[in-house]
Amino acid sequence: MQDLLFDFISKYISLTEGEKNAILSLDIFRSIKKGTILLKEGQKSQDEYFVLKGCIRKYYIIDGEEKTTAFFTEMEGLTPHCAINNAPSDYYVSCVEDCVLLISNADMGVEINSKFPKFETMCRILSEELLAKQQINFDEFKTSSPEQRYLSLIQKRPDLIQRVPQHQLASFLGIKPQSLSRLRARIVEKKS
Amino acid sequence: MQDLLFDFISKYISLTEGEKNAILSLDIFRSIKKGTILLKEGQKSQDEYFVLKGCIRKYYIIDGEEKTTAFFTEMEGLTPHCAINNAPSDYYVSCVEDCVLLISNADMGVEINSKFPKFETMCRILSEELLAKQQINFDEFKTSSPEQRYLSLIQKRPDLIQRVPQHQLASFLGIKPQSLSRLRARIVEKKS
DNA sequence: CACATTTCTTAACTTAAGTGAACGAGTTAT
DNA sequence: ATAACTCGTTCACTTAAGTTAAGAAATGTG
Q1: B143/A141 Cβ within 8 A
Q2: Which of A102, B66, B105, B177 has its CA 20 to 30 A from that of A79?
Q3: Chain B contact for A90 (CB, 8 A cutoff)
Q4: Tens-level pLDDT at each residue, chain B (192 residues)
Q5: B174 CA to chain A: closest CA distance, Å?
Q6: How far is the CA of A171 from the C1' of C12 (A)?
Q7: Which of B113, B148, B94 has the alpha carbon at shortest distance from B26?
């Protein structure tokens, strides 16, 4: 499981054995059961999550309804807004499946960044990459219809459709579960 | 105009006179006329844009139609995806108004980051902040209707509604210009 | 100034998403 | 084993966005 992490890091920077040990000594690997809520609305937390295995989701509760806005799977990380500005969280984070996560906090980040400057370089590159990806996703979302979004999701993240409940996918696509059902039926209809 | 930049930077890190001069010596201030296209689809460019004054917009041309997905105004920066992965750009960037911009490129970034490590720290913090803001925006977009989005835009960026043409705002809100007109009429109707 | 172009609005019609309700299948709890 | 709950689907109905077209207002150009 550690290899997964170091393989990922090696795409960005090279680590010595000493540096690897320094990271391992932080002891931030966590195995977490499906359904566990990692962060609740209103809560203040410094924790950041990086998924080594499994899937976590971010959701709001608006007028009593769950609105899922993002999923994070293998080698994707979530830094909640509340960890940055130290304000109460607006949303929840929970495990869609049994997970292995890296759970780090800002203090550890500061410590490791000051010890290993190249770590900061990696974090900056990662943020910039993620930001660019995020912007492309947002652009695609804005410029397409729910049906197009669903078809594109089938292409780009086919695993999500399997591992995530439909009603969570629906709000991820910006629509209601009933609309997703109908939309799927419409697509099947068209094919035939 | 330089003070605008240094005031902004001072929110994140403190600069010595020497460092300020090093930045000024890069000579990256540019005055640009309204309507100028800074980046075209298909073009490869390393340039990054930071708005000191004015407004730039990012748009796609899909099936012959302009789809505006983002505006950047004072103290906001755009690092096009093509500048990161060195691939042809998917979109256009143009000036909505006469602008004063900082136009930098990746090489200059590398140079200044290696000379002044604290600059890299600022860039990382800026990316992370921007990423978090971006995610909140995306979440809001997903969880609300076009009408709610428009009302929220009036609250959060009232200037945009004044300085940007309606049809560009429409695609920014994820709808057609005609729908925005109708939606506005509907809101006025409700008020009375 | 007059002409062309762009921008915004309105209208009628079509299409798709939201809403409320009901149903069956599968799961969990008692 | 039965009851309670969740989840996905379907249906009928409502509401709003997409589409096509037309015209008015504002802007830019020769």
Answers
A1: no
A2: B105
A3: yes
A4: 888 999 999 999 999 999 899 889 888 999 999 999 999 999 999 999 999 999 999 999 999 899 999 999 999 999 998 888 889 999 999 999 999 999 998 788 778 888 888 888 888 888 888 888 999 999 999 999 999 999 999 999 999 999 999 999 999 999 999 999 999 999 987 766
A5: 5
A6: 32
A7: B113
